Amino acid sequence: MSYNAAMTDSEPMLQADLAIIGGGAAGVLVALNALRSATAPVQVVLFEPASTLAQGIAYATPWPEHLLNVPAGKMSGLPEQPGDFVDHLLQADALPGLPRDVLTETFVPRRHYATYLQHRLAEAQAQSPATLHVVHVPVIALQPGTPRNALRLADGQQWQSRQVVLACGNSMRPLPAPGAEALPPGRVVDAWDYDGVRLLAGDGDVAIIGSGLSMADSVVALATAGHRGRIHVLSRHALLPLPHAHGGIAKFDPQPLLAMPLRARVRALRGHVRDAAAKGIPWQGVMDRIRPLGQALWQGLDAADQRRFLRHVVRYWDVHRHRIAETVHAQLAELEESGQLQRHRARLDALLVLESTLQLHAHGAAGGLPPLNVGAVINATGVETRALAMRNPLLQQLLADGHARPGPHGLGLDSDSAGFLLDGQGRPQPGVQVVGSLRIGTLWESLAIPELRTQAQQAATAALRRHDQRS
Ligand SMILES: Cc1cc2nc3c(=O)[nH]c(=O)nc-3n(C[C@H](O)[C@H](O)[C@H](O)COP(=O)(O)OP(=O)(O)OC[C@H]3O[C@@H](n4cnc5c(N)ncnc54)[C@H](O)[C@@H]3O)c2cc1C
Fold first, then answer.
1. How far is the CA of 403 from the centre of ligand 1 (A)?
2. Stretch 72-89: mean pLDDT, rounded?
3. How many CA atoms lie within 13 A of 260 on its CB side?
4. 3-state per-residue secondary structure call for the chain
5. What is the mean pLDDT of the chain?
């Protein structure tokens, strides 16, 4: 539905200076930066349908077995205070008995991250001349405009705001099998339904579709909840996430990689891995060396090489780049060795309901697999990155009305180098900025906290600057 078709005259227009759409980690970091930097009574409004802020998908899990994928020392939300998350853990005595140096290197439960951001937001709110108003309703339409953008909410509220930041984050891919959405509730559970996954634990067999980080979450949750049945993991390449390692960072100059085409880069990286290994440094040290260059590496590839990367390299890149704690990796390996976890390199074709079981039909390179009968299926296919497939009414409205266009290769929404949304014709919209995973097509590395904290700070600074210029 277009924005105008959704409008009514009956609702009054509510006013904001800065409207942030999405109250996951990224949106909260934008609000936090705006509150901390404001020198005038700016009205910040955060739109988030969930009742709790800063959880989004990643940090909504209440379960202690779901760990951050990076050590606490790298998870500060504030670029200028790298130890801030660890400071919070110590102040809150979140993990009693662990001294700072140990905490810095620890993969702590993810739930602490949401609490951290909530605390910092409350502190900033108490001290800022700016005000924060949270509206727990999704935004379903946005009409960019100068000097004000117009927003429509699912309950009919209408808002106007000088600046808007889109921080809508991640949405789950549907199961890649025809008719999967019509299956009985409780038999197909999203990996991000953290309680729902645990409820599947028992004697029956379970299948997980997808073999990435969400699969790891589901397996450790099932194991911790006492699951005794088999866990079938199905994915097209069946590559499991690899572990972090303690071996230091490889010492080489990564800059020459930026000028190389994809094939030469892969060769050069293999060479760096061999050199590092000769010095006793694991391959993870090479990945850590190039980690800060993630965006530059993507942007340094021409369009043809980016396509080649997406077609041939990305699945290997992902398991090397998005790693898990060694303890989690060891748990997966142990379950696989015992035979409880079984990996299938296969593509799901169909899911059939047979009285009390679900039957999975899949095929691999050598043809059809014998059907698998399971009690339930977990959808761990991960984040939807293709703009046109994102099931978010706001994003579809922006695309349909020509206020946005898909990013390079159809990934995320297109934005300029400063993060301003590009409209259907590629013109920047000066009142609308984008942060987080929606910038994947342009930046590639735009999902994890190190990128989000920088983008959030930049977005808040730009919004306040524009506010100051106009007032
Ligand atoms: C399982 C998992 C584990 C991860 N672990 C780590 C980790 O250890 N370290 C790390 O750095 N990164 C990790 N990440 C990456 C993670 O995505 C980011 O760190 C961060 O959580 C992303 O936050 P976000 O706010 O961009 O997105 P989300 O967390 O997806 O939040 C987006 C929010 O926007 C809201 N929203 C969407 N549409 C609308 C709308 N139309 N109107 C209003 N609100 C809307 C949603 O309700 C949601 O709350 C992990 C990701 C996942 C999925």
1. 23
2. 97
3. 12
4. CCHHHHCCCCCCEEEEEEEEECCCHHHHHHHHHHHHHCCCCCEEEEECCCCCCCCCCCCCCCCCCCECCCCHHHCCCCCCCCCHHHHHHHHCCCCCCCCHHHHHCCCCECHHHHHHHHHHHHHHHHHCCCEEEEECCCEEEEECCCCCEEEEECCCCEEEEEEEEECCCCCECCCCCCCHHHCCECCEEECCCHHHHHCCCCCCCEEEECCCHHHHHHHHHHHHCCCCCCEEEEECCCCCCCECCCCCCCCCCCHHHHCCCHHHHHHHHHHHHHHHHHCCCCHHHHHHHHHHHHHHHHHCCCHHHHHHHHHHHHHHHHHHHCCECHHHHHHHHHHHHHCCEEEEECEEEEEEEECCEEEEEEEECCEECCCEEECEEEECCCECCEHHHCCCHHHHHHHHCCCCCECHHHECECECCCCEEECCCCCEEEEEEECHHHHHHHHCCCCCHHHHHHHHHHHHHHHHHHHHHHC
5. 94
Residue of the CA atom closest to atom 3 of ligand 1: 58
Q: Rounded mean pLDDT of 124-145?
A: 98
Q: Which residues line ligand 1 (CB under 6 A)?
A: 21-27, 47-50, 56-59, 68-70, 138-139, 167-170, 213-214, 217, 392, 394, 436-437, 447-449
* C-alpha of residue 278 to centroid of ligand 1, in Å: 39
- For atom 42 of ligand 1, the residue with the nearest CA is 138
Over range 140-155, report the average pLDDT.
96
Would you say residue 10 has pLDDT above 80? no
Reported as a single tens digit per residue, the pLDDT across 99-120 is: 999 999 999 999 999 999 999 9
What is the CATH code for 180-242+324-379?
Answer: 3.50.50.60
Domain boundaries in the chain?
3-66+109-171+385-470, 180-242+324-379, 255-313
| pLDDT score at 377 | 95
> Which of ligand 1's atoms lies nearest the C-alpha of 437?
26
Which residue has 């399971």 as its token pair? 374
State the pLDDT confidence band at 146, using cuts at 50, 70 and 90.
confident
Query: What is the CATH topology of the domain spanning 3-66+109-171+385-470?
Result: FAD/NAD(P)-binding domain (3.50.50)
